[in-house]
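Forwarding the complex inputs:
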Amino acid sequence: MHTTYIPIGPSLAKNGQCTFTVWAPVCNAVQLVLGSSPTLPWQMEKGEEGYWTVTIDKVTPGMQYWYKLDNELQRADPAARYQPQGVHGPSEVTDTSFNWTDDDWQGMELAEMVLYELHTGTFTAAGNFQGIISKLDHLQTLGITAIELLPIAQFPGHHNWGYDGVFPFAIHKDYGTANDLKQLVNAAHQRGIAVILDVVYNHLGPEGNYLQDFAPYFTEKYKLFWGGAINFDGQWCDGVRNYFIQNALMWLDEFQIDGLRLDAVHGIFDSSATHIMEELTAQVRLLEQRAQRRKILIAEFDLNNPRYISPVAQGGYGMDAQWVDEFHHALHGAITGEQTGYYEDFGPLEDLARSLQHSYVYTGQFSKHRKRHFGREPVNTGYNQFIAFVQNHDQVGNRLLGDRLSTMLSPEGLKVAAATLMLSPHVPLLFMGEEYGEKNPFLYFTSHSDEELIKNLREGRRKEFAVFNWEGEVPDPQDEAIFRQSKLSWQIDEVPGLFRLYKYLIAFRKERQALYNFRRDDAVRNIRVQNKVLRF
Amino acid sequence: MHTTYIPIGPSLAKNGQCTFTVWAPVCNAVQLVLGSSPTLPWQMEKGEEGYWTVTIDKVTPGMQYWYKLDNELQRADPAARYQPQGVHGPSEVTDTSFNWTDDDWQGMELAEMVLYELHTGTFTAAGNFQGIISKLDHLQTLGITAIELLPIAQFPGHHNWGYDGVFPFAIHKDYGTANDLKQLVNAAHQRGIAVILDVVYNHLGPEGNYLQDFAPYFTEKYKLFWGGAINFDGQWCDGVRNYFIQNALMWLDEFQIDGLRLDAVHGIFDSSATHIMEELTAQVRLLEQRAQRRKILIAEFDLNNPRYISPVAQGGYGMDAQWVDEFHHALHGAITGEQTGYYEDFGPLEDLARSLQHSYVYTGQFSKHRKRHFGREPVNTGYNQFIAFVQNHDQVGNRLLGDRLSTMLSPEGLKVAAATLMLSPHVPLLFMGEEYGEKNPFLYFTSHSDEELIKNLREGRRKEFAVFNWEGEVPDPQDEAIFRQSKLSWQIDEVPGLFRLYKYLIAFRKERQALYNFRRDDAVRNIRVQNKVLRF
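Prediction (whole assembly, two chains):
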């Protein structure tokens, strides 16, 4: 690609000069409405490929602004760094400086990662970045080497898993400021803990999404489960591609985040000669060179196609790793006996054996649930390109009652699950609280304000659960109690011995090079299932 | 893929026993209504993956049949070999035997091909396969080595380019029988001429398309310019994939066709781990081995992405070649000066130079017409994987008046165009009549019967032409005169010396190995444009 990469949003210099850049290729006039005198908007100038800019003196952090499009619509900045009044309010100029004290940090290879997925709002009572910092000692004791934050981009209302974000460049205000996030990253690095961030590049949330007023960010060409797909390959897609690439670079560069977990990349449709994932990866590799730090790209991806994580020289997109949900499904099916929903495709221990050997369970077989032959062998990939888990926010939170394994299995069952995960050749990921058998549920919660949307959301949840035949009322995602119930209890002794076992297993894994540096051809050669016992 | 490949349609044995197979995975009952006693339908049995079969004795060629779905809908066979009353009538059992006399034929490599694209209905006064056979002497004199037939699958009405076909396995009845087509292929092979067939796997025509009554052949997930996309990756897609793969194998195996030109593969959306083009190619490679004959797969493809024709080992789909419209656009722009529609992206001779060197003109630059950066370098491909032309059915027929270059250029201009094509490193394709400067237009013609469709079609044509700013009334595609005007005149001396020049250039090309066996790195090293002269 010969695309021009253009930074967007406000760029504030030390001398108070600030350049605002916004992409609006089909607008005929764009103005900046800055501070408290909206009667005097600044005319912006249209440059190449539809980027409008204006440079203004004496700008200070905290000044609020809007853009005015074609003298009509007043809109917040799609690349806003802060939305002090939430998704429907103005944007705010921020101070991006920070005194980093993690100079020795070089990033982390996937093979060394033991990931810990957490949701900022429910991880601690405080429900913010400072809360996470207060728990870093606990995480260090546990031994995990990387935390993975659920999306932190500004979403509507106060609580949400994060997948309804509509300002990908702004930190959700209830979680803290940019400075708080940098403090967290800095503190984590000082403890030898990497930080991975979950980002959503396949859709934007349904409320407070004003992007379409600026440019053709969306397309009707592809239909997504959750609405309009992002325009990665149609007319004017360059600016859309730049938007998300700039977003990735902002987290990885300015915030010194160590890697991104890209939400549901199977929802990203791109028929371009260079797929946006390949283009993003190329830009991140350049950043790695500039920053002299390893940066990791992980795809959440459910199509069992190794192309996303294969080397570019072999026709792949070059990403580092992908989630392997099928490891979870095989293990969950085997230990709980559940057979509804997508679990109908799993059950016998042989499925788990397949995942331990091939990462994917389905490499071309007929899937009852998908009603088609599915997947292919993950050629040209290594085990440590697959993130495995026995629980995660989706697998817990998308259950009717958000119930964790700890409420389904005996302590011994939980220990078997833990050991299976930690001794698997894949890169392990724990879901917050799993390490001590948290009993509180992790439910699906939102705080939208759009009534129509709320109605549809409730109906949608009901339909989604219908295939599972779970019994009971569908909890109302809008009920704030649901959010409060989903907070961790921090009863570390909940399941006697479990926390100690996780500590032991993590330490065991870290000490054994062989366990986290598997090449596919010299590992797990001999795997047998006999009398319901799996040996390898 | 572990897909099961299942032959479909009627399979008539010499002893009169006939097995009918039809794919209808979501039907609960399928019956065969055979011959003239529709009161006695045959119950079919549902096998694996939704294939219904029944075997019946004493079946003879010429017997007509329908399928009855869920005791309600009476429908022709989606895999019918013959539709004696057209797209709305019953199917007919055919005799598939033929006495081939081309045993020495081994197929043909792309590098040896000089292609000649023709439309069966307008190529001769007869407008059928026998007409083509009567012109094989002319084609042999000209020296071309392969004919490429526009689609011949059964379409509604009597005349149509062929892209509105709705029975991909049935030969359009006005063109002749299966036996006639086999006679043509046999006669061509005996003259050393290969036969390529244009097939449409990205959509079905809008009239007489009953496929959705049998199975989920279509999807709402992707939106095509011309309607519903084919379901290559959703639930039940295995049967859809099998349907088109069986179709390709039928032409290449039973009809001994040498290769397929796949219409607009950019309209085929497939997020499967194994793209349908890769799967099709693999099946065709197996056929090559069985038949001991070279079989060629050519994609019409406008996304400047070499993945379709790159080797599978390098992450490609392994197809043999693709059309390179940009060679045409660059040449057409340079010699006619046209600048409207997609020609706005072309003009200077440098564009033609780029295509001569890189095959694609756009390998990442910004395209004004597409409003985005577009394409990438065709790495891992050779020149003879690109089919170039100065005219084709689309480039002539999608002009307002269907006017050929012969009505726009002087005889000298036509000769320059001919020489540029025949001396280009790409595989050349001529459009019927081009060799002698045919003056008759090739217009867009249809003979639909659905009034609503006809109205939309007329409006659509008008809109399509709007961007070109061409002057004049849009001819009515439904007017039979349009079809008749589009027939070749066969005035071989139309442009003095042109036919002789084409003969000379073809012979010149065939005699010079270097001209048709180019590797990208040792050809066209030195190309310069100076004072409107291009040298290489």
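The radius of gyration of chain A is 23 Å.
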